[in-house]
Amino acid sequence: MATAFGADSTTDDVLSGVDLAGKRVLVTGVSAGLGVETARALVAHGATVVGAVRDLAKARAATQVVRDAAAGGGEGLELIELDLASLASVRACADGLVASGRPFDVVIANAGVMACPKGTTADGFETQFGTNHLGHFVLINRIASLLGAGARVVSLSSAGHRFADVDLDDPNFERTPYTEFGAYGRSKTANVLFAVEFDRRHKARGVRAAAVHPGGIQTELGRHMTPELIAQILPTPNPDATLEERAASFRWKTIPQGAATSVWAGFVAPAEAMGGHYCEDCHVAQIVDDPNSRGGVRPYAVDPDRAKALWAKSEAMVGERF
Predict the structure, then answer these.
(1) pTM of the predicted protein model
(2) Is residue 248 part of a domain?
(3) What CATH number did the domain enclosing 185 receive?
């Protein structure tokens, strides 16, 4: 590509000179943080965004900035209801979209929860795996017919995938001791594996999928973060460093920088470059097996056989074949 983007690139940098008029994009979680910024950047460049949210009232208030940014004074944004922690809600949302018959050029699976206390979804799944992975798994598969040649799926993962591989024998922590970041890691690894297998299944018809790591960003996603949990994820060469010292040494991204890799993978990266891969800082990440490295993607998260096995397990859990 002629332009090189990196960790400091913002959504506006990535989309500079890009005309998205006529593009229709589904973005989940447009009521805060990265979802709002992603929608803002897309409509500012002419796209129409369908924002899927759990709380419509909250989303309407949070997305005024999106409507203000709509290119040419158009509306640019439609909000629909979606609770990823309820498969009944997911199926109703997907069925409504399919019934409308209007295709999508890009789906950005942005919504999620992080490091929450142990709990279950409406269907009895562990909260983070059920919300972050299974909800999106059912939604995207159910609307796959709306994705034509040239369409893309962007699955938001995280460097947090390094905390844990998926556990196909005990996905709901029924026998495994629960930890907030162990569960988060499993769900974020699942987000990568989903993209790997969805890409394999659909690339022959011109539909590609990738997973992305937005970077470390301070958003509403961290609502459950206690100082002790924050200390677990902030790396430091000094194990005795205070939380303040750890936070000061960590390079946080701004929200526009965090959303940049999503729009890069969805609209700017060559399809053959991004398809089936994990991306970070607006490039395809390298496979890194060093447990101490925050960068790159762990081998287990892009293992094609692991991706197929997770797909089969997910179908069994939700009671649907795709």
Answers:
(1) 0.91
(2) no
(3) 3.40.50.720
